[in-house]
Amino acid sequence: MRKPLSSAGTPLTETLSPSIPLDQIGQTLASIYDDLVSEGVPEHLAALVRRVRQSEAEPAAPHPAQPAATEAVAQRLALVVEDDPQIRALAETLLEETELDVVGCDSAEAALAVLQARGGDVALVFADVRLAGEMDGLQLARAVATLWPRARLVVTSGHGIRRPDLPSEAVFIAKPWRPFDVLVEAERATTDPAPPVT
């Protein structure tokens, strides 16, 4: 298959913007990415922005005589529990812009497996009420509140929920949720002091 040609007869991929390097285009996208997220960004653009930000944030290799300090520190996690793949992918992409590592699950059972393995690292659990599997999001929320009380707990649903059904520690965000509200909860999960374990 032939590449599309410009009016000059050269392939468009080579003359996309001769005066602006692709790295600069990516950096410009990265600078306006937060505004684009609220409007909905196509996944291929989000991937480009993540690559640009990652390449800018890559630290220089540590000196051979000095061990990397980050190896000893476990990365904090955001756990997204949502059975709709598109909504889960949107939440994951959004939370990848925070300092948290993101793990997505389609069921409460899968989320519990992650919590059992890395519960001490989980800073945020963002769960829908309706999930694949036997447990729903409210049952998961009660388990998290009881067994992993240091994790910030956010429950979401497109249907109303009675407050007594939620653990007192949980925050409820109605669907369709705003990206800003999710990012605020992620920020609180990383900056607010965790409740003491009693």
UniProtKB/TrEMBL annotation:
Protein name: Response regulator
Domain of life: Bacteria
Keyword Phosphoprotein found: yes
Keyword Plastid: no
SMART domains listed in its UniProt record: REC (SM00448)
Coiled-coil segments on the chain, per record: none
Residue numbers bearing the 4-aspartylphosphate modification: 128
CDD domains registered for this protein in UniProt: REC (cd00156)
Domain Response regulatory: 77-190
Any Pfam family matching the protein: Response_reg
Alphabetized UniProt keyword annotations: Phosphoprotein
